[in-house]
Amino acid sequence: MTIETQTRDVLLRAADEVVVEPPPIGELLGSAARRRRRIVAVVAGVSAAAVVVAVAVVSSGGHESGPVTSTTPTTAPGTRLVGMNGVMVSVPAAWANDRVKCGTPIGDTVMWDTATVQLCQIVPSPEVSVLQIADVGQNNSALSLAQRAREPVTVGGLEAYRLPTHHFAPSCPASGPGGKPVQCPYPRYEGTLFIPSLAVVLFASSPHRGVVDPILDSARLIPDGYVAIPSAATGSELQTMGLDIDLQGGVGPFKIASTDPPAGDIVAIGSTVSVGSTSRDASDSTRPHVRIVRAHAVCGPTGGPAFTVAVRTDRRLHVLVLVVVRGDVIGKIPATVSPNALNHVVVQQLRPAGRPYVTIKVVGLGFSMADSDLAQLPQVPRTLPPGAACY
Amino acid sequence: VRAVTKNADYSAYVSARWHTLVRAVVLLGVARPEAEDVVQTALERCYRSWNSVSGAADPDAYVYRVVVNTLMSSRKRRWWGERPTESPPEPEPVDDLADRLAISTDVLAALARLTPEHREVLVLRFFADLSEWQTSDALGIPAGTVKSRVSRALAQFAADPAVAGLFHHEEN
């Protein structure tokens, strides 16, 4: 065997030992879709201007124009439209947005975020129906939901995937460790729809089968000239979508704030959106959203192993970033995280982990440890390559 | 329809090449999560010019060129803070995983002792399986330079004590 062949064999054998996560196709397509939407928004703005000019020319010429074909999005009586990233569905009109407490639905609702671990726990009601809408490029939990949808379908001509509606009835032990009672999820019907090119996943869950399918089957593309108001958006981001903004209560254009009309509503490009209004549930607006985007093992600035943790938040917060192994804190650092930026925090590992995996947690200062898990990323692997170490 | 076809082609390419691309970047001396970041960034760039990629004479060489450029620019931007050593301060736990990692540990250590230029040609030629011409295209260097670097890199790599036992040296 030649040295070239042997080298190829050695490299292939070594590379086979490197465990690689599955390709983030949804995230890659989502990133592209977001970029495309930004371009579309700009083009739409330019087109709208062109239409105004054209109408002016036609009017001044004295010619009569034909009837304008309306593509105003409509829905059946008793329902309302909600959407994200170019797709919309019909939900019962009584369903409010984000009717949640501590992350748990407390009434029939449309939820926008599934990534944040909340500040407390309450027992979910068995009678609640929920539609969760998420951007897979922003939300790893949503991506894992999306990856379960495998049945090819189309939505407005776009490639999409369904996890057909099924009955989910988990069996749980009568008691957990220490004889504590187990809170077993209630039996429910669940279904998922994933549209890769729009980076959107819709997950419907209800105790009634007749609720899930009509929602997911109603999915269609938002007509040209209209957009869905995104959740957790800044005024500046709304402007790039072609919307006019009315900043309320001293809210700046780069602050994430509630909107009126609320997230998910379908509005015409050029509409005015109030930013910083109090239309959302007041209890919800007090709940901080913190998300760990990624965490890597690195060498710390003063030597020794450390972790860089990238965090996003919707408001300025004082937090502790913890490195935890089986409940044991082996590294921590206080940090202040700000909205509208990816916050990078380096936390030094103070003593050996003793295991190849650690957990990164971000907890809010001022809350008890038991209640303040703002975000966590389980099983962050030690990522220094074999043979590498820190001085 | 064109967007759907583009997405389908792109998704198929990413599915087929993702693991190889990440492993190639790991062999170039980058920790696995950073390698995934580099490849993800490179593939995002490729998506934007997917017509050029899919229409290129050799799409793989094109993508590897983007990956190498992304890796170089990311290294210019940030300090990775990692240096090879033979004695990690915290021993890895002895378990099945550690045993399985024995070969890659030695191979990565031997690769780390090559110059970056020699490491790149070795990985692209013999792991990514690019031809001399493709490697020269991906690295932006003349094919003759690829040939001479490969020759020197092979000799140094095969003689490295960490991996010498993996080679069957012919008796004279």
Task: Explain what this protein looks like in three dimensions.
The complex is a heterodimer of chains A (391) and B (172). Chain A has 391 residues and is α+β, with helices and mostly antiparallel strands. Chain A is 19% helix and 36% strand. In chain A, the strands form 7 sheets. Chain A has a 7-stranded mixed beta sheet, with helices on both faces. A 4-stranded antiparallel beta sheet of chain A has the order 21-20-23-24, with no helix packed on it. A 3-stranded antiparallel beta sheet of chain A has the order 1-2-12. Chain A starts with a helix and ends with a strand. In chain B, helix 8 packs across helix 9 (143-159). Mean pLDDT of chain B is 78; it is low at 77-101. At the A-B interface, helix 1, helix 2, strand 18 and strand 25 of A face helix 1, helix 2, strand 1, helix 6 and helix 7 of B.
Describe the largest sheet of chain A.
Answer: 7 strands, mixed
How would you describe the shape of chain A?
A: globular
**End-to-end gap of chain A:** 40 Å
Q: Helicity of chain A, in percent?
A: 10-25%
Q: Greatest chain-chain interface?
A: A-B, 56 and 66 residues
Shape designation of chain B: globular
Subunit arrangement of the protein: heterodimer
**Order of strands in the sheet with the most strands of chain A?**
3-6-7-11-10-9-8
What is the string of helix and strand elements of chain B?
Answer: HHHHEHHHHHH
What is the overall pLDDT average of chain B?
78
What integer value in Å does the Rg of chain B equal? 18 Å
Largest sheet properties of chain B: none
Find the count of extended strands of chain B (DSSP E, 2+ residues).
Answer: 1
| Share of β-strand residues of chain B | under 5%
| Cα radius of gyration of chain A in angstroms | 24 Å
> What's the total number of strands of chain A?
25
Give the integer mean of the pLDDT values of chain A. 72
Which stretches of chain A of 5+ consecutive residues score pLDDT under 50? 36-70, 114-121, 278-285, 367-371
Number of helices in the DSSP assignment of chain B:
10
The helix content of chain B, as a percent range, equals over 70%
